[in-house]
Amino acid sequence: MNPVMHGDVLIIGAGIIGSALAEQCARRGLRVAVAEAAIPAAGTSAAGMGHLVVLDDNPAELALSRDGLARWQARRHELPANAEYRACGTLWLARDEAEMQEAERKQAGYQQHGLSSNLLPATALRKLEPALAPNLAGALQVPDDAVLYPPVASRWLLQNAQALGAQLWCKAQVSSVDDEGVARLADGRLLRARHIVIAAGNASATLLPGLPLKPRKGQLLITERYPQRIRHQLVELGYIRSAHASDGDSVAFNVQPRATGQLLIGSSRQFHDTDPAINWPLLQAMLSRALEYLPSLRQLQALRSWAGFRPATPDKLPLLGKVPGHSRLWLATGHEGLGITTALASAHLLADLLCEQAPALDPTPYNPARFGPWSLADQHHPVGVAA
Amino acid sequence: MSSELHTDIAIIGAGPAGIAAAIAACAQGAHVTLVDDNPRPGGQIWRGGPSQAPASASSTFRQLADSQARLLSGFRVAAIPAPGQLLLEDPHRAQVLRYGKLIIASGARERLLPFPGWTLPGVTGAGGLQALVKGGLDVRDQHIVLAGTGPLLLASAATLRAAGAQVLLIAEQAPWSQLARFGWALKAYPAKLAQAASLAWQLGGVPYHHASHVLAALGQTRLEGVQLQLGARTLTLPCDWLGVGYGLLPNTELLRALHCQISQGAAEVDALMQTSQAGIYAVGEATGIGGVDKALLEGRIAGLAATGAAAAAQALAPKRKRQLAFAALLDKHFALQPAITQLAQPDTLVCRCEDVSHASLQLFDSWREAKLQTRCGMGACQGRICGAACESLYGWQGSGDRPPLLPTRLGSLLEPTLAKANPT
Ligand SMILES: Cc1cc2nc3c(=O)[nH]c(=O)nc-3n(C[C@H](O)[C@H](O)[C@H](O)COP(=O)(O)OP(=O)(O)OC[C@H]3O[C@@H](n4cnc5c(N)ncnc54)[C@H](O)[C@@H]3O)c2cc1C
Ligand SMILES: Cc1cc2nc3c(=O)[nH]c(=O)nc-3n(C[C@H](O)[C@H](O)[C@H](O)COP(=O)(O)OP(=O)(O)OC[C@H]3O[C@@H](n4cnc5c(N)ncnc54)[C@H](O)[C@@H]3O)c2cc1C
């Protein structure tokens, strides 16, 4: 069968990462096609929180999240209203003096990188968010952080790409790829491009067996509408500990006020549980944690809860660059819990590499070669993909 | 009340089906717990409980009262935190119920379809309006129009008239040819025919139009009138209330959450009313719309089957066949005419929890995509109303129910003591 599409870049996966990349490549005049197994923006990108947050746990994470946030900020007025972008800022909450010292350390780090943040003593914190438990020691406020509604933002990026000529193939599940630039679809069709980028989230590992990517389950719960109850994204300072715990189950307090007035409550992290159903003991642990910080939540009506799977690498940094040992095959995945924040930064970086331009950020920490090499999926036995 | 209850047989829904199941299971000596979210048992048809129910229901209520069944009124099943456990909630408390077997008698709800003005105050479901009246709404001398399809329009009109309302007319969407065939087929069901005749008697004088439907509800901030298609002509009528219902749909949320097989919108059951999940039974409207007699019979079968009286349950199977044949008649003769799904205008809201219009939904190909992009179905009703509307209008199949089953206080979700996870 002859390939049905010829182009410069074929992107596998229309989550927020594939969509951002499609837009960026189309903007640079490349002929782009996107193959999506199911429907756009309905995978992990539909399950997350949409907190645009600068994380400072290590320099590479800081660089990418900072660049990502700055790019969202720069485009906030372009976003459609239902993407619900709001610059509400983050409050990193300290429970005691020890955590307050951590807040100070964090502030020093932000300052060093020219990022603004304010230390809030307990009284100031109570004024800003009266619903918080009265025994908190204080908080670090990061005013530039924001929130948005990821499915709409993701679809918007893809629509921008389409408006610039990118083709979208829905219900197009890629079952194998090769280094000649040919992707085979589950229905037998072939797509050909000069470069192929695997941006299939968790399923990327089915196209590249051995890829060090593990789904990391996370659960969220959303309430009915309670406007004005909370105004900032609230996160406990222990969050980073939870996010970077290498194994085991963890919960951390994380609450986001949605534009609708709903409260989105997180979060949990779990390896080794690939069941999309709610894990109740963990949900309860998460809610108990939330009540410690926001006691009045107890009376609010929970509307629904769900789980999503963060595509996680061993070092929690994404995979952006060539598949080691290959010349036309690329990776854009592994964004774990930060893919909404870092989508635009990742897209720029990878588009630079694809166009053989020097990226603004040092690409080394994200280079897939740090883990490789991997073989390609068996051409004759297409791998089933869990969309 | 201790925060955890145990029972052999939990029955969800205290309508005719659930009550009949409870009576039969208790008679076998089982420990039975009957849960219903209304203040009194009775379900949709006997909504006001024993005191307001018709004479035909009184022996059923008496048997329930004489049985050992534990009745948890005002409690709804909020979630299924673990196999064999139900999380119940009432306005004040949460409660865990552990069960051996489960009988789901969750009944049905009305199908509401969007038309211009359907979200105006004063517009309700046809059965919904009846329920409001049974719940105490005063409709004396109010002018009311009923529209939609099915026998419920007649039952509702009878209740409204008895409460002193002036029912101006009933608009039934089914054409005369279908109604006539339904009437003819009813002859095989003397009990139904008698019911129909008694309703017709109570409705003497109320104009009943076939091949007719609502075009629009009119009014600025509240319903003031209705525009109707009556056969070939249109008519505008002032009115105070408009009740519109396009038939009934089984409540399957609980069944789906328990992974019971659903087909054509209703629970799939075997001859003993067992679902695809062992030990879980479904009865009444939940297995397909068939009315009170089918509900009573199925409840009895399941109550017997769940307590090991399989032979006695089996013996009722032929009777059930007849009820199913009647249910099939309903389905066939009150099938929706194509015009009914084409009433929404571009700006008509389809999802009224989240204010999503017909025009904005038409851009999508699937429920999931529409939901993610527009929030359709993400509001307080969690798609119970707009999900069915989208299926009728766009042919979308809903997907992905997410706990809790109904909005539930956060504190209640913490109630069950479950195996501890070990969060760090
Ligand atoms: C609970 C939770 C909370 C989160 N909160 C935040 C947050 O607050 N802030 C933040 O920045 N990030 C957050 N994230 C992380 C963020 O959601 C992810 O990093 C991001 O969505 C990953 O996007 P993706 O495009 O890589 O993956 P996906 O969105 O999963 O997209 C991959 C796409 O590829 C398609 N696909 C798969 N296989 C194939 C194939 N073989 N052929 C064709 N197509 C295929 C899939 O159908 C899917 O559409 C959170 C995640 C979770 C789970
Ligand atoms: C609005 C309406 C009005 C009707 N009026 C009439 C009428 O006047 N005459 C007539 O013949 N038929 C009427 N019907 C038809 C009715 O469905 C049947 O006649 C009969 O009541 C069906 O019995 P059932 O036991 O299957 O269900 P139902 O009578 O509907 O009983 C089901 C019960 O389960 C409860 N329930 C459901 N889910 C949960 C949960 N998660 N937790 C706790 N409780 C739950 C419901 O609140 C309800 O009380 C009406 C139906 C509707 C929807």
From TrEMBL, chain A:
<dbReference type="InterPro" id="IPR006076">
    <property type="entry name" value="FAD-dep_OxRdtase"/>
</dbReference>
<dbReference type="Pfam" id="PF01266">
    <property type="entry name" value="DAO"/>
</dbReference>
<dbReference type="GO" id="GO:0016491">
    <property type="term" value="F:oxidoreductase activity"/>
</dbReference>
<keyword id="KW-0560">Oxidoreductase</keyword>
<dbReference type="InterPro" id="IPR036188">
    <property type="entry name" value="FAD/NAD-bd_sf"/>
</dbReference>
<feature type="domain" description="FAD dependent oxidoreductase">
    <location>
        <begin position="8"/>
        <end position="353"/>
    </location>
</feature>
<protein>
    <submittedName>
        <fullName>FAD-dependent oxidoreductase</fullName>
        <ecNumber>1.-.-.-</ecNumber>
    </submittedName>
</protein>
Automatic annotation (TrEMBL), chain B:
<dbReference type="InterPro" id="IPR041854">
    <property type="entry name" value="BFD-like_2Fe2S-bd_dom_sf"/>
</dbReference>
<feature type="domain" description="FAD/NAD(P)-binding">
    <location>
        <begin position="8"/>
        <end position="295"/>
    </location>
</feature>
<dbReference type="GO" id="GO:0016491">
    <property type="term" value="F:oxidoreductase activity"/>
</dbReference>
<dbReference type="InterPro" id="IPR023753">
    <property type="entry name" value="FAD/NAD-binding_dom"/>
</dbReference>
<dbReference type="InterPro" id="IPR036188">
    <property type="entry name" value="FAD/NAD-bd_sf"/>
</dbReference>
<keyword id="KW-0560">Oxidoreductase</keyword>
<dbReference type="InterPro" id="IPR017224">
    <property type="entry name" value="Opine_Oxase_asu/HCN_bsu"/>
</dbReference>
<dbReference type="InterPro" id="IPR051691">
    <property type="entry name" value="Metab_Enz_Cyan_OpOx_G3PDH"/>
</dbReference>
<dbReference type="Pfam" id="PF07992">
    <property type="entry name" value="Pyr_redox_2"/>
</dbReference>
<protein>
    <submittedName>
        <fullName>FAD/NAD(P)-binding oxidoreductase</fullName>
        <ecNumber>1.-.-.-</ecNumber>
    </submittedName>
</protein>
